[in-house]
């Protein structure tokens, strides 16, 4: 903590002059990579300022650098970075085909620097998190190997596997567990092992992972108590033999803990984390963007435990450092990457503005463009962030949505954030609860939006109609262009489609089986896929 306190203090000092820090960070990256193929092409050695850099180096995206990455996958070096790629982080695949992003020892260390500062503020505010064990839920690191023999996979697994040994000993789940492919078996194993310990902090990127886990507790309670008492791993679940042996070697009979759980079940009537982990002090997960709605489900399982956002964290870059529990906002990580901001309203313009961190305004939204220590230069990561305020003179940002995740049937350009907010407000008004939902476009009944929902409880016809009417009204409030086009009858009244129970979980499994990551997968709340709902079993349709 003393070491991290010094780093945090230096970071705070740097936030008083963010442009100076940004220029120093940028020039350091360019000097390191000036003799690479990319550096020579754009004459990095002649860059003396931010202005020079922006004049000489064009904007890029994955489509542009994909041929270069393809060569790196074969083992070629010194192309976009002077450092050898030791790993490729794979994107979640939620909004498109997975992309491989080079990771070097240097880029990993710079990302870790920001993580360490985040950890300092988190530990300072929650000193009890290390009094017990950490429940960390990730995806396994290695998904496969490139043609050049370089491993690739989810970066959360890569980070987990490269933790210092002193930290690894605090994590309650053995790494082998994450290679269990059967979902029911994996969730059972997570619960069976973690419920035996005093967990004081939980860390997973997506809060929906926690709701999925908690919903399985009731059906597994008796089995888990019996297994903890006898020190066994239930044989009914499909756990590969080698993984089963590795886990079983760590287990011992624990009748005392089994007795505690049995007593809770008897007195409370159910086993919930807020009962069997009374010392739980913090949940660490994403809080911004599309996952906000899942946070509403956590109190019923965890009570009023504090939740700390991980920050704007992607395979490409760690862009913010939250320093408190409120909201999803964090201080721009100005020592970790170089940033440019495209105003949201300029995203599709040819002459779009490119702003620096001292030019952004509170309350405005921007598409984030990054230059990273891993060899990405003026790279569009397709993330829209909102500036929520300033820490000293450095902006604080929160993730809002993927930049191009918008739908326009007749010119209305509805963003995922419009959908999420409209659903939230309509749900609050009508008292409805949904396990999952997604808006999609439908053309058969005239151009309109279809809202595919999976109710979390039984709904009367009146509640369904109330929700649909409220949803329509809220969407018109959220998006004035949508309202205008509805008035012109160019867009029809939305429809409500009730999905059968478990349909969204089935969709999730299909996507993960197709390459998306279990722990990083975000359920889309707005799909650009025409008639997306036809891939689901719909039990009822409501039209007004």
Query: How large, in whole angstroms, is the Cα Rg?
Result: 24 Å
Distance between the termini: 59 Å
Compute the number of strand runs: 20
Tally of separate domains: 3
Helix content: 25-40%
Largest sheet: 6 strands, antiparallel
Structural class: alpha/beta
Write the layout of secondary structure elements.
Elements: H1 2-14, H2 18-32, H3 37-41, H4 50-56, H5 62-73, E1 87-90, E2 100-103, H6 105-125, E3 133-136, E4 144-145, E5 151-153, H7 155-161, H8 165-168, H9 183-194, E6 199-203, H10 207-214, H11 217-230, H12 241-248, H13 255-268, H14 273-276, E7 282-285, H15 292-295, H16 298-302, E8 306-309, E9 320-321, E10 330-332, E11 338-343, E12 365-371, E13 379-391, E14 394-402, E15 406-407, E16 414-415, H17 416-430, E17 434-442, E18 448-455, H18 461-478, H19 480-487, E19 495-499, H20 503-513, E20 538-542
Parallel strand pairs: 1-5, 3-6, 6-7, 7-8, 18-19
Antiparallel strand pairs: 1-2, 4-5, 9-10, 10-14, 11-12, 12-13, 13-14, 15-16, 17-18, 19-20
Helix pairs in contact: 1-6, 9-11, 11-13, 17-18, 18-19
């Amino acid at each position: 903590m003393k070491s991290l306190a010094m780093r945090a203090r230096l970071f705070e000092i740097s936030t008083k002059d963010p442009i100076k820090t940004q220029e120093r960070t940028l020039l350091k990256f360019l000097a390191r990579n000036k003799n690479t193929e990319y550096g020579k092409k754009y004459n990095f050695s002649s860059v003396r300022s931010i202005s020079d850099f922006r004049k000489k180096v064009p904007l890029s995206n994955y489509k542009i650098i994909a041929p270069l990455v393809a060569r790196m996958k074969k083992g070629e070096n010194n192309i976009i970075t002077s450092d050898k790629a030791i790993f490729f982080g794979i994107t979640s695949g939620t909004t498109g085909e997975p992309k491989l992003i080079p990771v070097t020892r240097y880029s990993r260390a710079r990302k870790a620097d920001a993580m360490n500062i985040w950890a300092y503020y988190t530990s300072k505010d929650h000193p009890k998190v290390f009094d017990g064990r950490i429940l960390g839920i990730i995806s396994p690191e290695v998904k496969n190997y490139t043609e050049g023999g370089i491993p690739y996979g989810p970066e959360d697994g890569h980070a987990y596997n490269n933790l210092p040994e002193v930290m690894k000993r605090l994590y309650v789940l053995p790494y082998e567990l994450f290679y269990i492919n059967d979902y029911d078996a994996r969730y059972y194993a997570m619960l069976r092992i973690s419920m035996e310990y005093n967990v004081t902090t939980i860390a997973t990127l997506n809060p929906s992972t926690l709701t999925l886990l908690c919903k399985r507790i009731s059906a597994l309670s008796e089995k888990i108590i019996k297994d903890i008492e006898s020190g066994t791993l239930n044989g009914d679940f499909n756990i590969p033999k080698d993984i089963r042996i590795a886990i079983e070697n760590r287990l011992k009979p624990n009748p005392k803990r089994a007795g505690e759980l049995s007593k809770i079940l008897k007195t409370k009537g159910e086993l919930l984390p807020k009962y069997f982990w009374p010392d739980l002090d913090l949940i660490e997960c994403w809080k911004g963007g599309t996952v906000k709605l899942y946070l509403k489900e956590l109190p019923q399982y965890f009570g009023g435990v504090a939740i700390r956002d991980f920050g704007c964290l992607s395979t490409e870059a760690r862009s913010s450092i939250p320093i408190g529990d409120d909201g999803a906002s964090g201080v721009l990580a100005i020592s970790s990457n170089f940033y440019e901001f495209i105003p949201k309203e300029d995203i599709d313009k040819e002459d779009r503005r490119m702003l620096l961190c001292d030019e952004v305004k509170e309350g405005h939204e921007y598409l984030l463009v990054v230059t990273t220590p891993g060899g990405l230069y003026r790279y569009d990561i397709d993330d829209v962030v909102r500036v929520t305020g300033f820490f000293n003179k450095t902006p604080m940002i929160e993730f809002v949505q993927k930049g191009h995740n918008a739908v326009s049937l007749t010119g209305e350009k509805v963003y995922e954030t419009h959908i999420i907010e409209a659903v939230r407000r309509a749900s609050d008004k009508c008292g409805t609860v949904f396990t999952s939902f997604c808006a999609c476009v439908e053309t058969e009944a005239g151009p309109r939006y279809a809202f595919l929902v999976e109710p979390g409880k039984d709904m009367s016809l009146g509640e369904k109609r109330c929700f649909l009417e409220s949803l329509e009204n809220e969407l018109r409030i959220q998006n004035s262009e949508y309202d205008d086009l509805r008035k012109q009858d160019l867009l029809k009244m939305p429809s409500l489609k009730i999905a059968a129970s478990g349909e969204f979980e089935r969709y999730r499994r299909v996507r993960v089986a197709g390459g998306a990551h279990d722990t990083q997968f975000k359920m889309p709340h707005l799909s650009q896929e025409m008639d997306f709902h036809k891939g689901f079993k719909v039990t009822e349709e409501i039209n007004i």
